[in-house]
Specification:
With 130 residues, the protein is an all-alpha fold. It is 63% helix and 0% strand.
């Protein structure tokens, strides 16, 4: 179950239709993108904390090189793999790899969601995914 409630049967069918080859191909990239997003979020939090302390931007302390707090991380799911697969088919994979999901414009991320929805509807009707 996701934050928004249970997923539709079509969505479950779509994620289950991913081949093991596709999953292994995108799994490492999914971990890379997740780590990149976490690093970006930590940097943003660090900057906000420095502003709250009143430190000028040039005198902000450098981040510690040691280990960070261990946060429980959500495991990579088939949904994450599916998003990467769709982004690759639309030609956005390099952008996601370089900048994370935050690097996509609203229109591009909408296309990814729209393509996932289109594939779910085709799968529900029993049509081929392409």
């Amino acid at each position: 179950m996701s934050k928004k409630g249970p997923r539709s049967e079509a969505f479950n069918l779509l994620t289950e239709s991913l081949s093991e080859e596709v999953i292994t191909r995108y799994l490492e990239l999914a971990y890379h993108v997740r780590e990149q997003e976490l690093a970006r979020r930590r940097e943003l939090e660090r900057r906000k904390a420095a502003v709250r302390r009143g430190a000028p931007p040039a005198e902000q302390p450098a981040p510690k090189a040691g280990p960070t707090k261990s946060r429980s991380r959500k495991p990579i799911t088939r949904e994450d793999i599916l998003k990467l697969y769709v982004a690759d088919s639309l030609g956005y994979l390099e952008k996601v790899r370089a900048d994370g999901w935050g690097g996509l414009t609203c229109a591009e991320s909408g296309r990814v969601g729209g393509m996932m929805t289109r594939r779910m509807k085709r799968l529900e009707k029993g049509l081929p995914l392409t």
